[in-house]
Specification:
- There is one protein chain.
- The protein has one domain: Alpha-Beta Complex (Creatine Amidinohydrolase), CATH 3.90.230.10.
- Strand 4 and strand 5 form a beta hairpin.
- The model has no long low-confidence stretch (mean pLDDT 97).
- It is globular.
- Helix content is 27%, strand content 23%.
- Helix 1 runs antiparallel to helix 2 and helix 3 runs antiparallel to helix 4.
- By secondary structure, the chain is of the alpha+beta class.
Length: 256
């Protein structure tokens, strides 16, 4: 079902989005070399509780996962790209880390992700990989306007990623969001313009370009959750929750 939010729900969405944006900014600042992924998960739990919000992940048990996720944030390192299950790993300078966080407050969810390099090291190709997802996200947000269609967003994302030389996986992409974290419509990261659901004010979308350096094939870790590049190459993932308005989309998950 595709949800169209009313004015009261949009107000709640703005609060939830700001919470997610603020938390990701703080966790990014704290995720330095020597920090363990389990520490980041514990910090996320503390921040969520302090904000009076609830995690969308702890009890999340979709068909593609291995039972309840059991943690408060996704932490994907280097060749991991999606659904990274926090585990006993200590970050090193040069690691490419993605933090993906979703919470719900006052009945409305928000979801965002950021990829960045830990410490001063800058391994070859990593900044370009991250930049491609950020540029694709910006292009998607630019066309997320009433009257356009989901296909226009998918086409904008795919055009940026393929122009940068990356293959695009269509198994996982963006999605509708509102009273639940994952809802309709699905937003593939490549597509044909002019196709799909027509965008309307009040629609919330989590737009999330992600890419792997040299493949579009995924493999799943034994943990049943973490998705990695099949070649072991590096990956990146950028995401914002946006609201379709009467004009330009409103980015809800920016830090305040």
């Amino acid at each position: 079902m595709i949800e169209i939010l009313n004015a009261t729900q949009l107000t709640a969405a703005r609060e939830t989005g700001a919470i997610v944006g603020d938390m990701l900014a703080e966790l990014r600042e704290r995720a330095t070399a020597g920090v363990n992924l389990l520490e980041i998960d514990a910090w996320a739990r503390e921040l969520i509780l302090a904000a009076g919000a609830e995690s969308c992940y702890v009890d999340y048990a979709p068909s593609f996962g291995n039972g309840p996720f059991g943690h408060y944030i996704c932490t994907a390192v280097n060749d991991a790209v999606l659904h990274g299950l926090p585990h006993d790993y200590t970050l090193r300078s040069g690691d490419l880390l993605t933090l993906d966080l979703a919470v719900i407050k006052n009945g409305i969810a928000a979801d965002a992700a950021v990829s960045f390099l830990v410490g001063p090291a800058r391994p070859a190709g990593s900044p370009e990989l991250i930049r491609a997802t950020e540029d694709a996200l910006a292009a998607a947000i630019d066309v997320a306007r009433p009257g356009n269609r989901i296909g226009d967003i998918s086409h904008a994302i795919g055009s940026v990623l393929t122009a940068a030389g990356y293959a695009v996986n269509t198994e996982f992409g963006g999605h509708g969001i509102g009273s639940t974290m994952h809802g309709d419509p699905h937003v593939p990261n490549i597509g044909r313009p002019g196709r799909g659901f027509r965008l309307r004010p009040g629609l919330l979308l989590a737009l999330e370009p992600w890419v792997m350096a040299d493949t579009d094939a995924l493999v799943t870790d034994p943990d049943g959750w973490t998705l990695r590049s099949a070649t072991g190459g590096r990956t990146a993932h950028s995401e914002h929750t946006v609201a379709i308005t009467g004009g330009a989309a409103e980015i809800l998950t920016l830090p305040r």
